[in-house]
Amino acid sequence: MFKIFKKNRLSKSQFLISYILILGIILIIGMALYYATYRQVNNGIHQQNRQALSSAIAEMDDTLALMSAAARQVTSNREFNQLSQLTSSADPDFFYRAFAAQTGLKSLTPVEFLLPTASSYLYMGNSNYIISPSRFVNFDSYVRYDSNYDIGSETLRPMILNPEYWNKLIPLQPENTHPFTYLYVCPLSVFENSDSSSDKVLMCYEIGVENLAQIFSSMNLYDIGCLAAFDQTGAPMFTLSDTESVLDFQLLSSLDYDNSIAHLAAEETGEKMLVTSIASSYNGWQYYLVQPEEDAYYSVASYQRLFTLITVTALAVGGIIAAVSFILGNRNFARLTNELSESESMNTSLNLLVEKQKPMVIESYMRRIMEGSITTNDEMQYIIQELSLDRPDTKFHVLYTEVSPSEGHDIRSSDMELCIQNYDMLVREALRRYYPDTGYIYKPSDRAFAILIASDKSMPFEQVINRDREIFIALHKELLVNYGIWIRGGLGERNGLISYTWKSYQQAKDAKSITSAEKYILSSVDFAHSTDVYYFPESLSVQLGGFISTGNKDQVNELFKLIRNENTIKRSLSYTQQRWLISDVRSTLFKKRHSIAADELDAERLKILDLIDRQFEGEMSLSSLNTIAIELCSVCGDSSDGNELILKIQEYIINNYHDPNLGLTKISDEFGISENYFSYLFKKEVSENFSTYLERLRMAKAKEMILDSNTSLSTLYQYLGYNNAASFRRAFKKNFGVSPKEMRDNINAK
After folding, report:
1. Once rounded to an integer, what is the mean pLDDT over residues 418-443?
2. Of the given ranges (3-7, 112-116, 648-652), which has the lowest mean pLDDT?
3. For 338-353, what is each residue's pLDDT tens digit?
4. 3-state secondary structure at position 676
5. Alpha-carbon distance 432 to 428, whole Å?
6. How many separate helices (H) and strands (E) can be counted in the chain?
7. Contact predicate 681/375, CB 8 Å
8. DSSP category for residue 150
9. Count of alpha carbons within 13 angstroms of residue 158, beta-carbon side
10. What global pTM score does this model have?
11. Which residue in 236, 220, 222, 273 sits closest to 53, CA to CA?
12. Are 481 and 473 in contact, with CB atoms under 8 Å apart?
């Protein structure tokens, strides 16, 4: 008996020792993995900083190159060249030629409108006058009365005429102060080599600190960091900082850089700073990004906390398991059985949750189909299979409806939310009952519903419209009589391909927008199109840019087919309207072309890009613009992991734009990437900053709700993710030039 007890005690001791040894080995392996992960994360942060800073510098270089291009473009203006040769305002032709030159400047390609500058003008040394499409005045008078310069013309004029200051940023505030405006001077090539300084003709751009901050918005300075640029001589060009920090070029240039990364300690606080240095390939400027290491390496700190937590937890759990195993032996079978039962119960609950979420997933698919936001064929095929819409003998079109209380039902504002919830349930059920094929519904706003309708391909379109109109009249009568709900709707044209449903959705919205109490159901063929307004809404411009970014040539061709059909077949536009339409489409493509980073392209794509640039110089038509768009697809069309990630993020933004907390931090946490890398990747793939994209999306939704619904303007900002009505009204007026109330009043007046 004693031997058995001794043997059992020895066996348990051996088990405990073995367990402790294994736990020690696991901890050693964990420390090694932690160190490797720590190095890898650090290197990843350095790489993200280099990429983000390089991308911002490339945008700055493109901006400066566009400034020079705008200056060169002016030399083709004959009237301006003649004006610049005049030496006195007393010359009889002086003001006449100034008027002619201004008129000519207005007709030039507005390259400068693509630039992030406050304003610009041409300075003529002969007469000491400045001229722009909207301004013609003596330089001294402009500096003294019309500008916000803090230095006088007697100081600024010699600097402008001095070649040492050309193609550099001249601060317009006194020395030893923090500049908030700079002047960038570009010489016109025709006058650049003039012997006399007074003969110089110069293009002057006023650039505010906020313009520079927009270009480098992807750089996170963490409150106490800063970004500075110096020219090849070490002279400071500009500094971006939330503090009054001044960087010493000698100190920064003397640091020991390893692959563009260095470290230094702040003189005043002793805080460790991370320094990233990149040189511009355009003008040789040296850029320095200085960030506090504690904030820049925030993701490393989370790894440290996680490893500490895992280590402590492993030791605690290991000690508990060892103690329980030593005392109780093998009594874990029942516990494992219970855990297995709990896992099965959890699996069942998850399956039920997935079933409950299925309608939301289907509506998300329908939103992307109707708004044309699906950019890859693989994704489109997946959604078609999921929704069982792969039906070769069927065509599809959209019915867009809007509901409201009938005139005999007065509803208090406090009951409106409950009323909207009832509408959602009643209208969805009625739409699916009256239009069972397909029964898929998308709800773009509180009172709007869009349903996808299927019909046999062999059935004439007129017969389909008459059938759907009769069904809608019966639906309208039922909702009005039984529930006091007034519903009106619009029908779009049919498409054989699901990927082109966005056209029918847009047409149905247009038809619904002109319904009345007598004609509460209309189709896209029931109304005459305006002959004095061309058709190219903002939504089409956004879709065109998205299709080009993903190389979707089929959708680009279909979009141009829609533009031609709306503007040349359904409308009879004047010559001026046709030129404005072509100018708008050209501007969309021109902006897209200049968002492409040429240094990331191979030789074949560079040839295509050069061909596109030459085509922009020729006469434009819809056919030539269609060709340019297809060629841009060939340049942009190569998909990547970054592109797939941004597509997922864009879908997340579209589904959550109404969240007031939606921002860089929330999205970075949601997708497990740093804010710097997210800003860089988003700008690279979408060709605009995240904040600009989010505001444009919210404004598009705001305009849609104002035009297509009766949503109260006093609460509209809450639906769009704004914290207060004032900031919403400012953003709305900046985008559309009028307030929300003025836009609704204009629509009601019509």
Report:
1. 81
2. 3-7
3. 666 676 766 666 666 6
4. helix
5. 6
6. 26, 16
7. no
8. S
9. 4
10. 0.41
11. 220
12. no
